C-alpha cells in the first residue's frame, strides 16, 4: 500500500504496485544422467518467492523457477493421489510439478471514482506444495526375460557393445543393462537385460520383481530358455516358472508380444537339436514365434536380430500411418505401469508387515524370563 507524495501534487492518490509471481518447480530430462541419486539425500526443493511491490506503481520481481534435472525415462507420480503426473521420455522434455503462487495486488488496483484513497490490498497466494515420487525406468525396444543363467547377459554381449558381467553362477546380473544393437545402415534397436527371475519372485524370492518395471516400456519381450539347465530341471518347466511370475506381476504385460528363444543349443547333440526344441514347444503349447540360438557361439543371433528389426520397423510404420495405434500403445503402457506399481507396492507392504511382525515376536521373546531357558542355581 502506497500513496503518491510529490511536491505541488496534492492528493496524488494510490500508487502501490503489485507483487511478483512465485517461481514454479520444473523437471527437465537431460542427457548424461543415469540415476536419481541426487534426490536420495536432498528431499525438499523450493522455488524462489516473488518480491513485493513498491510505490510509484512498481511491480515486484517474479521469483525464478527452480529447474531440476532428471534422467530420460523418469516417471513422476503424485505420492498422495497415486496419479501419474508425467513421463519424461524425450531429451529436454519439461514437466511442471508445482505451480508458483499468484502475485498480490497493490492498492492501485482498488482505486475508483468513489474510492479515491483505497487502503485495501490483497496478499499473494501460496504456491503449490506437492509430494512426488520419481521412478526411473530404462528406455528399450526389447526386454529379456529368463531364469538366472539363461544366457541373457551372454546374448546382449554377443550382439552389442554392452559388457555386463557373465559368470557360471546365478544372479551375476544385479542391475539392468542396456545394449544398442546396430543393424545395416543407420538402423538400430535397444535391448534391456534385467536380473533373472526365480520361482516365487512375485513374493520376494531372489531379487524379487522390482526390476520387471524396466520392461514396461518395451515393445517386445524375448523369453530366453536354457536348453541345458544346470540344476537338472527341464526347459519347459523353467519357461512355465517365468510365465507365471510375469502374469502375477502384470497380466497386461504378459499378454503382449513375446517370443520364445531356445538358448544354448550348441550344448545339444547336433542330431537331437530339432527334436528336443520341438519337444519343448509342444509341451508349452507355444503358438508364437520360436527362435533357436547360442549366445556364446553367436549361432542364430543374426537371424533373431534381423527379425527383431523387421518387427520394430513394421510397428513404427503402422503407428505413423495410423496415429490411433500409437495412442492405444500409450494407453496399454499406462495400464502396465499402473499394474506394476500396484504389485510392487503390495510386495513392499507384505515385507514391511513381516518385518514388524518379526520385531513383535522378538519383543515377546525378550519379555519371557531368561528367554524360555530354565536356569538351575546350585549351591
Radius of gyration: 30 Å
In CATH, what is the homologous superfamily of the largest domain? P-loop containing nucleotide triphosphate hydrolases
Strand order across the largest sheet: 8-9-7-10-11-12
Could you report the average pLDDT, rounded to the nearest whole number? Answer: 82
Main sheet: strands, sense, barrel: 6 strands, mixed
Distance between the termini: 91 Å
Q: What overall form do the CA principal axes indicate?
A: elongated
List unreliable stretches of 5+ residues: none
Under CATH, the topology of the largest domain can be stated as: Rossmann fold
Written account of the structure:
By secondary structure, this protein is an alpha/beta fold. It folds into 2 domains: 25-99 and 120-136, Spo0b-associated Gtp-binding Protein, Chain: A, CATH 2.70.210.12; 142-343, P-loop containing nucleotide triphosphate hydrolases (Rossmann fold, 3-Layer(aba) Sandwich). Helix content is 29%, strand content 17%. The chain contains 7 helices and 12 strands. It has helices at residues 38-41, 152-159, 235-249, 251-254, 273-284, 301-321, 323-367; strands at residues 25-30, 66-71, 74-78, 84-88, 94-98, 132-136, 142-145, 177-182, 188-193, 220-226, 258-263, 290-292. The strands form 3 sheets. A 6-stranded mixed β-sheet has the order 8-9-7-10-11-12, with helices on both faces. Helix 5 links the parallel strand 11 and strand 12. It is elongated. The protein starts with 24 loop residues before the first strand and ends in a 12-residue tail after the last helix. The mean pLDDT is 82.
Amino acid at each position: 500500500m502506497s500513496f503518491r507524495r510529490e511536491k505541488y501534487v496534492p492528493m496524488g492518490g494510490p500508487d502501490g504496485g503489485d507483487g511478483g509471481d512465485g517461481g514454479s518447480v520444473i523437471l527437465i530430462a537431460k542427457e548424461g544422467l543415469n540415476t536419481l541419486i541426487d534426490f536420495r539425500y536432498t528431499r525438499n526443493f523450493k522455488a524462489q518467492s516473488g518480491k513485493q511491490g513498491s510505490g510509484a506503481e512498481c511491480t515486484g520481481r517474479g521469483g525464478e523457477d527452480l529447474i531440476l534435472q532428471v534422467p530420460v525415462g523418469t516417471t513422476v507420480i503424485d505420492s498422495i493421489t497415486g496419479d501419474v503426473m508425467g513421463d519424461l521420455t524425450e531429451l529436454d522434455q519439461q514437466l511442471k510439478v508445482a505451480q508458483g503462487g499468484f502475485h498480490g495486488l497493490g492498492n492501485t488496483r482498488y482505486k475508483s471514482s468513489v474510492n479515491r484513497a483505497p487502503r485495501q490490498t490483497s496478499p499473494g497466494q501460496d504456491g503449490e506444495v506437492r509430494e512426488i515420487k520419481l521412478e526411473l525406468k530404462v528406455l528399450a525396444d526389447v526386454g529379456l526375460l529368463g531364469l538366472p543363467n539363461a544366457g541373457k547377459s551372454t546374448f546382449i554381449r554377443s550382439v552389442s557393445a554392452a559388457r555386463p558381467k557373465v559368470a557360471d553362477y546365478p544372479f551375476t546380473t544385479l542391475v539392468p543393462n542396456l545394449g544398442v544393437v546396430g543393424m545395416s545402415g543407420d538402423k538400430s534397436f535397444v535391448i534391456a537385460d534385467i536380473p533373472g527371475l526365480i520361482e516365487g519372485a512375485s513374493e520376494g524370492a531372489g531379487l524379487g520383481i522390482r526390476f520387471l518395471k524396466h520392461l514396461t516400456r518395451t515393445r517386445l519381450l524375448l523369453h530366453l530358455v536354457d536348453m541345458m539347465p544346470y540344476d537338472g530341471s527341464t526347459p519347459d518347466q523353467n519357461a512355465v516358472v517365468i510365465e507365471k511370475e510375469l502374469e502375477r506381476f502384470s497380466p497386461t504385460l504378459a499378454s503382449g508380444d513375446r517370443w520364445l528363444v531356445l538358448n544354448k543349443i550348441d550344448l545339444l547333440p547336433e542330431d537331437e537339436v530339432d527334436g528336443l526344441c520341438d519337444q519343448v514347444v509342444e509341451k508349452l503349447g507355444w503358438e508364437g514365434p520360436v527362435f533357436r540360438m547360442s549366445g556364446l557361439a553367436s549361432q542364430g543371433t543374426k537371424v533373431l536380430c534381423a527379425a527383431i528389426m523387421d518387427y520394430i520397423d513394421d510397428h513404427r510404420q503402422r503407428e505413423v500411418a495410423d496415429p490411433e495405434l500409437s495412442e492405444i500403445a500409450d494407453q496399454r503402457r499406462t495400464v502396465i505401469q499402473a499394474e506394476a506399481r500396484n504389485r510392487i507396492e503390495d510386495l513392499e507392504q507384505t515385507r514391511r508387515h513381516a518385518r514388524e511382525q518379526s520385531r513383535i515376536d522378538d519383543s515377546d521373546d525378550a519379555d519371557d524370563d531368561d528367554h524360555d531357558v530354565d536356569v538351575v542355581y546350585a549351591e
